[in-house]
Amino acid sequence: MSNKKGGFGKFIGGLALGAGIGILLAPDKGENTRKVIDKIFDSYKIKEQAYNPALSVLKLSKAYSQNRLENACELALEKYRVPRYHHLNALLSHNQDVKYIEDKNKKFDKPQKNMGYLRGAEYYGGKKNDWSRDY
What we know:
This protein is mainly α. 56% of the residues lie in helices and 0% in strands.
């Protein structure tokens, strides 16, 4: 009977170790995805409770590409303290990750032509660089 006493604990420990190593050493996951997984694990007191949420995040790469999941994780890390599956799923389903990357890569080298109601000193009766006159 004493041999069966620690068998279940060893099984759970082995399961936890295997899942942790599998997640950390997954070669095809990106840096931001790993950060999200780490934040999920850090948010639980009992690490075994974090397995299903972490695996559900990783399964998003089957429905969407790994590149999109990586971009969504980058965006979620900026928006949320602890990103979860429902955050990432919403970002991916509404293509916010694609818009985020487009905006990130967009360069604003040229001034915008449509500047709205921008009025200079001439409009108010002054001249350019008229800031030094005495009142």
